[in-house]
Design goal:
By secondary structure, the protein is an alpha/beta fold. It folds into two domains: about 50-120; about 130-275 and about 320-395 and about 400, Rossmann fold (3-Layer(aba) Sandwich), CATH 3.40.50. The protein is about 35% helix and about 25% strand. The protein has helices at about 5-40, 130, 160, 185-190, 220-230, 245-255, 275-285, 290-300, 305-310, 345-355, 375, 380-395; strands at about 50-55, 60-65, 75-80, 85-95, 100-110, 115-120, 135-145, 145-155, 165-170, 195, 235-245, 265-270, 335-340, 360-365. Helix 10 links the parallel strand 13 (about 335-340) and strand 14. Helix 5 packs across helix 6 (about 245-255), helix 7 (about 275-285) crosses helix 8 (about 290-300) and helix 8 crosses helix 9. This is Alpha/beta hydrolase.
Length: about 400
């Protein structure tokens, strides 16, 4: 072999080694990214700075560092001292490049002080009796993982209402049951008993054996168990309401459960209807090559891949893609999803509405960030949801198609 051939051979080996190392690095990055998507993140860091509090001003004010969250009009909540304190914030009164002055509507716990705090869209903090002034019961329902906690808000119309339609409200990924509190008053005003369940891997709930989210592919069983709890206590049927990943969970429950024929209608707020789109969007947001997000699909789907990301069972995102499965839907759906959603873009939601205009009613929304449609215009949100649910209650119950036989 000539010296030139030997040099070429060494160069080829070096390039092959480099390509192998690059492929391994890409694979490791895809595994890390996908694992983060399915890993619960219960510990939320403070994300906003309180600059000043004026409780004697008319109206009382709180001044915050300006961020994409704090500059948007509407009503929001603010925690501080590791949730030891909570306040409700109203409209923006003044704003410059660095700060935002907002109306301080109420201080529910603690005393707000300058320093770090955490923004929330829940607005209401704590169980319904404390946060909404509505009597509730702390209940549990049985699941395959053990007892699951829930809040139950009975109807003020008495036992006759409990033999009718109930509302079951499902929060999103990494959220708490408090995310659902904004929807309780309008549904309660319609006379519906309201059940707000936890689901597996919530902070106050039993964990999946893997300790990982399955993006709706297993969590729907907990919603099914919650519906069974309601049926056992007199409910005739239910309206399911879901936010973000809660929307994905609700759609699975409404089509895969053996009691899906007891689901009368569905309300979705900023829902995930196509996880492919969300993963690709998040890879772009995190400035990763789009291939990183796409490499996550086989990791989730195949037995060897799911072990790398820590899932209990393989997860096929196609089963969670309601744009391609739109023809299978048999339930009326109200879909509220802002054009300005920065976390779950509303393109798939709009595509689903175009595919099934006979069933899916879209309420256009602007300005609101992820799951904050209510916050930007609570009166409108209540009005839209109330009108839709009232219309469904006036019609015979729809029947959903179930694919429960497929798992």
């Amino acid at each position: 072999m000539t010296s030139r051939a030997r040099r070429l051979g060494r160069t080829g080996l070096a390039l092959a080694a480099l390509a192998t190392a690059a492929a391994a690095a890409v694979g490791a990055l895809a595994t890390y990214f996908t694992r983060k998507v399915v890993t619960p993140d219960h510990v939320k860091p403070d994300d906003v700075e309180v600059l000043d509090v004026d409780l004697v001003a008319q109206p009382p004010t709180i001044t915050l560092a300006r961020t994409p969250e704090t500059q948007v009009q509407g009503r929001y909540g603010l925690w501080w001292d590791h949730r030891g304190g909570h306040a409700r914030l109203g409209e923006v009164l003044q704003m410059d490049d660095q700060s935002v002055v907002r109306h301080l509507l109420a201080v529910e716990e603690g005393t707000p002080q300058p320093g770090p705090a955490r923004w929330n869209q829940y607005y209401f903090s704590g169980p319904p009796a404390a946060s909404l002034g509505l009597a509730h019961q702390d209940v549990e329902f049985d699941t395959d993982l053990g007892p699951m906690p829930a809040w139950f808000v009975p109807s003020e119309l008495g036992p006759s209402a409990e033999r009718g339609t109930w509302a079951v409200l499902v929060h999103g990924r990494g959220a708490t049951r408090e995310e659902c509190l904004r929807a309780v008053p309008p549904l309660h005003a319609l006379g519906l008993p309201v059940l707000v369940p936890s689901y597996r891997n919530d902070l106050d709930a039993p964990s999946d054996p893997s300790g990982r989210y399955h993006l709706g592919d297993s969590e729907w069983r907990d919603v099914e168990a919650a519906v069974l709890w309601a049926l056992a206590r007199g409910a005739r049927d239910v309206v399911l309401v879901g936010w973000s990943m809660g929307g994905s969970i609700v759609l699975q429950a409404a089509t895969r459960s053996w009691v899906c024929d007891r689901v009368r209608a569905v309300v979705l707020d900023a829902p995930v209807v196509d996880w492919h789109d969300v993963l690709e969007h998040q890879s772009r947001v995190n400035r990763l090559p789009s291939a990183i997000g796409r490499l996550g699909y086989p990791l989730l789907r195949h037995p060897w891949g799911r072990r790398l990301v820590g899932l209990e069972h393989p997860l096929d995102l196609h089963r969670l893609d309601w744009v391609t499965r739109a023809a299978e839907l048999r339930l009326p759906i109200l879909l509220i999803h802002s054009d300005d959603d920065e976390f779950v873009p509303n393109g798939p939601s709009r595509a689903l509405a175009r595919a099934r205009p006979d069933l899916v009613r879209v309420e256009p929304w602007h300005e609101a960030r992820h799951t904050k449609e209510w916050n930007t215009d609570p009166e409108r949100w209540d009005r839209v949801v109330t009108r839709f649910v009232r219309e469904q209650l006036a019609h015979p119950q729809a029947v959903a198609v179930s694919d429960a036989s497929t798992g």
